[in-house]
Amino acid sequence: MRDDPRLPSSSGFWRSPLRGPRFTSVLGLVLLFGITVLFVTGLVSYAAYNPDLSPVNDQTPEKGILGFYLFDWPTGPHWLYRLNQGVHVTLGITLIPVLLAKLWSVIPRLFALPPARSLAHALERISLLLLVGGALFEFVTGVLNVQLDYVFPGSFYPLHFYGAWVFFAAFVAHVVLKMPIALSNLRHLREEKEVTEEEKNDLVTPRPAEPTVSRRGALWFVGGGSLLLFATTVGQNVDGLRRTALLAPHGGGDPGSGPNGFQINKTAAYARIDAAETGEDAWRLVVTGRTGTVRLSRADLAGLTLHSAALPIACVEGWSTSDQWWRGVRLRDLAALVGYDGDPPDLFVESLQRRGAFRRAALRANQVADPRSLLALYVNGEELSPDHGFPARIIVPAAPGVLNTKWVARMTFGDL
Ligand SMILES: Nc1nc2c(c(=O)[nH]1)N[C@H]1C(S)=C(S)[C@@H](COP(=O)(O)O)O[C@H]1N2
Ligand SMILES: [Mo]
Fold first, then answer.
1. What is the number of the ligand 1 atom nearest to the C-alpha of 357?
2. From ligand 1's centre to the CA of 99, what distance in Å?
3. pLDDT per residue over 187-207, tens digit each?
4. Whole-model pTM?
5. C-beta of 376 in contact with ligand 1 (< 6 A)
6. Mutate to test the pocket of ligand 1, among 277, 388, 406 (most ligand atoms within 8 A of CB)
7. From atom 5 of ligand 1, which residue's Cα is the shortest distance away?
């Protein structure tokens, strides 16, 4: 019964002559390196939110010891988050064909019977469920977040964060178990040796169908798929190539051209920012600190000492701008206005926007202190456009885009 080749539990059911230890091993080693980079850049990206500073930055519940590695996110080099997140998202998308091919190559094992031959075998299969399920979950949630903005119950961040830890634990166990086999398979590949009888494992079909493509051809096909995904994604980080980023839409409006002609995440219309609230008569920035509260009009702000900084916007979704020239008031100068003359404290920023998770952000003291951290009034020599945060927005070096609050209404200095 078990060997009835009409059933997927029979090895005779799976007939592709491509399947075998070498094919699986090549793809496995690519994923070993690629997924390790994804895991590290993912954790680093999480740290960049300064999630332990305030629940406003991250509401992942009970992160507890999983937050063990968090540190004060630095402000330099100023492209740090841009690089990290560009690698995370672009590499993740590029690895999709490799992941799918790897899963395809071992699919007979999913159906193998009996379900468990021993306790050890049972444990191995459970870990494989976590591995495969975790991999699919991480890739699917990541891609959906980049593509669709929102489809999850609750927040994307806790799901992707916990999924990553579960998946990576299974991944490490899998690598430890399979590494010796994978390496020996690859050594033979290099020596162009035939697969010997004893190396044949359950992945090699006993009833091979006519081959339609060589194993090498299949690897080129997978690599070509990856290259295509890479080529249609990477442009989201590069001026002049943005139109090639067919697979990396990032919502928002059409940025148009001119000084404000760079990507927009949420438009002013989307955030329901009413032009009547941002006019010279209506808008006042409310700054609070040790010595009380001051209210500043935009003209008041423009009358303070202004500074410039060339900084990018780099979103968690993987897109980023080149450096833009921002001009505005230093955050630390605003801190000094409300009683912090020496080292400035943390800062809590609130937008005019009334709804939406990104209307508030907390910045750490080191970010406030950096002379390039601004409450920007101008970009590239012109007033901020409504979509880029008029009348004023935060810009901080090396920080994720989400901390660069637009349409700022209130700033509260003090230890968080
Ligand atoms: N008030 C407010 N500020 C915000 C956001 C928002 O939704 N509301 N989005 C943030 C995110 S996620 C990013 S990536 C940047 C994008 O800035 P840009 O639209 O000027 O490119 O703005 C940040 N500031
Ligand atoms: Mo973002």
1. 7
2. 32
3. 877 676 665 655 567 889 999
4. 0.94
5. no
6. 406
7. 358
Query: Amino acid identity of 76?
Result: G
Neighbours of 399 (CB within 10 A): 28
Place of tokens 């590695």: 69
CA dist., res. 28 & res. 98, Å (int): 9
Q: How far is CA 184 from CA 29, 108, 191, 366, in A?
A: 12, 22, 11, 49
CA-to-CA distance for 283 and 338, rounded, in angstroms? 19
Average the pLDDT over 165-177 and give the result. 93
Residue 130 has pLDDT above 70, yes or no: yes
Ligand nearest to the CA of 392: 1
Ligand 1 close to Cβ of residue 10 (< 6 A):
no
Residues with Cβ within 8 Å of 129's Cβ and at least 6 positions away in sequence, in order, are: none
Apex 93 CA angle, 87 and 99, nearest 5: 115
Please tell me if the CB atom of residue 145 comes closer than 6 angstroms to any atom of ligand 1. no
User: How far is it, in rounded angstroms, from Cα 42 to Cα 162?
Assistant: 11
- pLDDT tens digits for 284-310? 999 999 999 999 999 999 999 999 999
Beta bridge partners of 394: 375
In angstroms, rounded to a whole number, what is the distance separating the alpha carbons of residues 328 and 375? 5
Q: Are 68 and 193 in contact (CB under 8 A)?
A: no
415: CA distance to ligand 2 center in Å? 25
Pocket test for ligand 1, best of 49, 266, 274, 410 (most atoms within 8 A of CB): 266
Write out pLDDT tens, residues 60-114. 777 778 889 999 999 999 999 999 999 999 999 999 999 999 999 999 988 888 8
The long-range contacts involving 117-126, CB below 8 angstroms and separated by at least 24 positions, are 124/177
Q: Say if ligand 1 is within 6 A of residue 263 CB.
A: yes
Mutate to test the pocket of ligand 1, among 262, 270, 352, 358 (most ligand atoms within 8 A of CB): 358
